[in-house]
Amino acid sequence: MPASPKDGGIPAESPRNVFSSPCRDEHAAPTSGDMNLPTSAMASKASGASKGSDLHASPSIMHAALRSGAKSSSLPAVPPVPPVPPMAVSSTITTASTISDCTIGALYGYVVGSVCQDIEQVTGEPGDVQLDGKLAYGNAALTFKDVSFSLPTSHGDSNTILAPCSGHFEPGTLVALMGPSGSGKTTLLDILAAKKTSPYSGTVHMNGRPRDCLFPRLTSYVPQDDIMFPTVTVKEQVMFHTALKTEVPYAVSRTMMANATELRLRAVGLEEVQDAYIGSDVVRGISGGQRRRVSLACGLATGAQIFFCDEPTSGLSATDAEQCVRYMRLLCKKYHVTIIAAIHQPRQEVAVLFDHLLLLTANPGEVIYNGPMVQATQYWCDAGFPVPDLVSPTDYFLDLITPGTVDSQADHFLSFYRDTAKPVIVRLVDAELHRERRTAMELLEDRRRILCRFGEMPPVRRSIYAVRFRKQLQKVFCRQLRLLIRDQQGILTNVVVAVAQGLLVGAAYIGIGNHAGYNQAGFFFMLVMTCALSGIKVMPKAISERSVMKLEVSEVLYNDWAYIISFTTLNGIVSLLCNALFVLIVFLMSQLRWEIFGTVLLWNSAIFIAMDSVYMFVAAAAKDSSAAQILLVPFLMLAMIFNGFTVSRASVPDFMVWALEMSPVSHTLEEMVYSIQKQTESIELMIIVDQFGYQSSLGAAVGVLGAWFVLFRIGQIVCLKAMHNIKR
User: Fold this and answer.
1) What residue spans carry the region label Disordered (predicted)?
2) Phi, psi of 420 (to 5 degrees)
C-alpha cells in the first residue's frame, strides 16, 4: 500500500499540481511499499535506468555515503532501514576493518565514474536522475505561511521589503527563488534558513513542526559573499566544512575523506585547482568565479536535509553556472534533499533544471507565481501573455513583472495570482503546516543508522553542533597552525622586526653594562616600553581573521571558543618567541651580567603578555583597524604615561597615585630594577631605587599584571561573542 498523507508518506500517484511544489513521479522517492520490500528488491527496481546508482555492489559505497552525507531514506511512517543484505557486501565490505583495507585507487576510480555518469544524465526532464534507494536520506519538508519583512524609515513608518507569502516544498525539490532586484529573494531565503537577525513576521515549519535547535544541523546555508582564509587550499576548505558538519564512522580514514572531497570538487569543476590557494588581493589564488564554486561545494558537502543558496551562480560563466545547477539537481534527485536557491535571471538551459519556481515582483516583493517550473509557461499563457517563440521564458517573465519598465504587467499578474493560484497555495499550506512527519532528532538518528553499517559511530547529541568540542578544537587548531606555517611572509616579518628592534635598541645602549646605574635604569625603561608596545602589530591580523570566524560561527561549524583558544595560543607562542629574540639581542649588546638575564626576560615577557591582552581586546571590539587605533589610545596613555620612570612614585601628584598603581608598566619596571639591584648589589642602582621611590611589592605587581591579562581577555571573549556578528 502506498503511504498516505495522514501518516507522513508521499502518495505514490500524486498528480502534479500547477500551483504547488512538484509531486514525485515513480522515481522521486521510495514509497512505504518500496521500503517494506527487501533491499535487494529495491535495488532491482532502481537499477532500470542507471547501474551507476547501485553502489552496494562495490566497496565505494562508503565514499558515496560520505559524498552525500548520507542519512536515512526512510519516510515518516517507515520502520528503520533494514540492514544491508550480506550478498551485497560480502566480497569487500563486511566489517569496519575491511573498509580500511580497501584499495583506495579502486574505490576512487569506481565512484568517480559513477558520479560522472550521474551528472551526464542530468537533463531537467522528469526521471532524469534515479533515486538511490539505499543511500537517499532526505526527508524534510519545508512549509512557510505569511512570511513578511519590513524596515523602519526615518519618518516613523515602515517600508515593506517582502509582502506576506506562503509556500510548501517537498523533499527532493530544486527550488528557484527569482525576481528583479529589490524583490526580497535573499530576504525570503534568510528567513526560511533562520538566518534573519532582524525581526520578521510569519511562520516557518519543518516537517510540520517549528524549527528547533537542531535545525542548523539539518540545513546548510551558502552565502553570497565568499569570505575565506586566503592561504587555505580549495580541497582543505571543503574538507574542513565536511569534517565539522558531519560525523563519520571511526574506521573512515582521512584518505577516504579526501577522495570523497575530490568527487565533490570534480562535480563543480574544481578538481584541477583543488590544491591551489583560495587567494586574496595580496595572495595569488583561484579566480572569483572559482571561489563562488568553492562556497557552493562547502555548503553542499555538509550532508544537510535542506540547502539554502544565495545567488550560487553569481560571477560564474554560463557554462560553469549550468554545471553547478546540474550538480545541485543531482543531489536533489539522487539523495532526496531539498535545495532552495535565490537566483537572479538564469538562462533557459539552467532554468529547466529547477523543479519549482517562486517568482516575486519588487517594491514590495510579492508573489507572482508559485508552482512547477515546467508549468510556468502555460501559466503565463493562461494569464494572457504567452511566451513568444525564440524568447527565453525566464527573461520574458522578468520583463513583464519588473515594476517601472515599459512592458511591465506586474499589477495584472498580481491580480491573476490572487484570483487563481493563491487560494490553492493557502489550502496546501494549511494542510501541510502542522502535518507532523519525522522529527529533527529522528532524521539525525536515521542518518546515523545508515553510517553505522560501515563502522562504529558516536551517538547523536541534541546540540546545534554536529561534532563535539574536542573535534572542533582539533580541526580549528590544525587549520590555524597550517595558516601560521604558510604565512611565511608574516613569520619572516615578525622575525625581521624583532631583530631590527633588537639591533636598533642595542646600538643605542651598546655596552650600557659598563656605565653608571642611572643610564642602566634608562635602558631598562626603554626595554620594558618596547616590549609593551611590540604586540600592536598583531591587531590587523586579528581584525582581518575575525570576519571569517564570524561567518563560520554563524554557520555553526564550531564554537567560537575553539577559534579563541587556537588563535590566542599559536599567535601568543610566536609573539613570545619573537619578543624573547628581541630581548636576547639587546641583552647581548648591552654587556650586562648574565646572572640577571632571567630576571630581565621574565619581567619583559610578563609585560608583553599583559599588554597583548589589551591589543586583542581592542581588535575584538573595534570595527576596523582605524577604529582600533582610536580605541587603543586611552589604555596606552594610562600604561605609558604612568610608567614608573618619567612619572614615578617620587614625582606623581597624590591624586594620581592610583594611576601609577594601576599601570602594568610601572609595576614591571619597578620590580625588575629592584630585583636586579638585589642580585648585583649595585650601589648606583640603590641610589636609583631610593631616588624614584621604588618598593618591592611582588604581590601587587603580579596582581596588576594578572588583572590586566584576565580582564582584557574576558573583554576580548565577550566582544568576539557579542559584537560584529553577521547581520542579515
Assistant:
1) 1-56
2) -110, -50
Backbone dihedral region for residue 455 (phi beyond 0: left; psi -120 to 50: alpha; all else: beta): left
Polymer length of the chain? 728
Sign of the torsion angle spanned by Cα atoms 412, 353, 424, 17: positive
pLDDT, mean of residues 650-654 = 88
Which residues, in sequence order, are bridge partners of residue 204? 144
Confidence of residue 53 (pLDDT cuts 50, 70, 90): very low
Q: Which of 17-31, 263-277, 619-633, 670-684 is predicted least confidently?
A: 17-31
Q: Which amino acid is at 95?
A: T
Dist. CA 600–CA 528, nearest whole Å: 9
Rounded Cα–Cα distance for residues 297 and 75 (Å): 27
Give pairs for 666-669: CB < 8 Å, separation 24+.
Answer: 666/642, 667/697, 667/700, 667/701, 667/704, 667/705, 668/528, 668/532, 668/603, 668/604, 668/606, 668/607, 668/644, 668/701, 668/705, 669/524, 669/525, 669/528, 669/643, 669/644, 669/645
SS3 for 718?
A: helix
Q: At what angle do helices 517-533 and 625-641 cross, to 10 degrees?
A: 160
- Which are the contacts of 287, defined by CB distance < 8 A and separation ≥ 6? none
Between 51 and 130, residue with greater pLDDT: 130
Domain boundary assignment for the chain: 5-136, 469-722
Q: Please, what sign has the CA dihedral across residues 121, 126, 130, 136?
A: positive
- Of residues 527, 480, 497, 707, the one with CA closest to residue 613: 707
Give the C-alpha separation, 85 to 71, whole Å: 18
Give per-residue pLDDT as tens, 362-402. 989 999 999 999 999 999 999 999 999 989 999 999 999 99
Edge-to-edge strands, sheet with 174-178: 219-222, 306-310, 338-342, 174-178, 356-361, 366-372
- The beta-carbon contacts of 315-318 under 8 Å, at least 24 apart in sequence, are 315/288, 315/289, 316/289, 316/292, 317/289, 318/347, 318/349, 318/350
pLDDT at 425 over 90: yes
Residue 183 DSSP one-character state: S
The pTM of the full predicted model, rounded to 2 decimals, is 0.80
Cell of 553: 560561527
User: How many Cα neighbours within 13 Å face the side chain of 107?
Assistant: 28
Query: Could you tell me the CA-to-CA distances from 593 to 510, 518, 589, 597, 600 in Å, in that order?
Result: 13, 16, 11, 7, 11
The predicted model gives 644-652 an average pLDDT of 88
Helix (H, G, I), strand (E, B) or coil at 201: strand
- The amino acid present at 103, given as its one-letter code, is T
Question: Cβ(509)–Cβ(586) under 8 Å?
Answer: yes
Cα 474 to Cα 557: distance, rounded to the nearest angstrom: 13
Tell me what the mean pLDDT of segment 44-54 comes to. 36
Query: Torsions phi, psi of 359, nearest 5?
Result: -105, 130
Mean predicted lDDT score pLDDT of the chain? 83
Parallel, antiparallel, or unpaired: how do β-strands 366-372 and 209-210 relate?
A: unpaired
pLDDT for 115:
57
Contacts of 407 (CB under 8 A, 6+ apart): 399, 400
Give the CA distances from residue 537 to residues 46, 417, 532, 577, 578, in Å, rounded to whole numbers and listed in that order. 61, 60, 12, 15, 12
In whole angstroms, what is the distance from residue 179 CA to residue 359 CA?
6
Residue 108 pLDDT class (50, 70, 90 cuts): very low
Q: Hey, how many other C-beta atoms are within 10 angstroms of the C-beta on 549? A: 23
Q: If DSSP codes are grouped into helix, strand and coil, which group holds residue 407?
A: coil
How do residues 204-225 score in pLDDT, each as one tens digit? 999 999 999 999 999 999 998 8
31 closest CA partner among 112, 128, 136: 136
- CA–CA separation, 336 vs 345, rounded Å? 25
